[in-house]
Amino acid sequence: MALKLPRTIRLDPSDTFVYSRAAEPGEWAVTGAFLFHGADLDKLSGKERQAFRAGFLGIDSFGWSTLVVVTDATAQDRAAAVDRLAEQLVVRCGAPDIETARAAAEEEIAFAQSLCDHSPNTLIGVHRTSEHAGMREAFRTLHRKASRLEPATAFRFVEIEEEDAPTEKVDLLALAGRRK
Predict the structure, then answer these.
(1) What is the Cα–Cα distance from 68 to 115, expressed in whole angstroms?
(2) Which superkingdom (predicted)?
(3) Strand, helix or coil at 30?
């Protein structure tokens, strides 16, 4: 079975407005729910509440992304993601040492990997809620055709080669009145 991991994706600029720090497109991502452990979830407001409700955490920037995309990865990509997240857990979250952080990062990456049991280019969103027993996460997938991930174009130029077809030449400068 191919190894797949989630990467952040930005389909429009909205993440830069709704989160205090938006993830850069293309970062490996985890759910980031651990950042809300112990928080009074009912008192979250504004951009922090939005990150709780719908954000995936980019592991390089520690910024948020509303969507992630299932992406093929190598074992080296996965190992690098675990190492980077472990570093971030020490620096940003106060993990006591790199070994403890690496164990936690391994769990987070494994869970993120488990979300990617879909074909590449599948988009994944999360919806988190606060419940009496704690936090609940629900994930949804948006299956898009690969061509729909490409920028939309109004025109497509197609070159057609035909043997013995008459050649038509147009002088645009003459038509514009700039050449006589």
Answers:
(1) 10
(2) Bacteria
(3) strand
The Cα 122–Cα 69 span in angstroms is 6
Q: 2 falls in which pLDDT band (50, 70, 90)?
A: confident
Helix locations, 19-176, DSSP H:
46-54, 75-93, 98-114, 172-175
Cα 109 to Cα 91: distance, rounded to the nearest angstrom: 18
Closest CA to 2 of 115, 117, 80, 112: 117
d(CA 103, CA 99): 6
Return all residues near 112 (Cβ < 8 A) that are at least 6 apart: 5, 6, 28, 29, 30, 31
Tell me the torsion sign for CA atoms 22, 26, 29, 31: positive
pLDDT per residue over 57-111, tens digit each? 999 999 999 999 999 999 999 999 999 999 999 999 999 999 999 999 999 999 9
Q: Where do the structural domains in the chain lie, given as residue ranges?
A: 4-149
CB neighbour burial string for 75-95, b if at least 16 within 10 angstroms, e if fewer = eeebeebbbbbbbbbbeeeeb
Helix (H) or strand (E) holding 69: strand 67-72
* Two tokens, residue 142: 């948006």
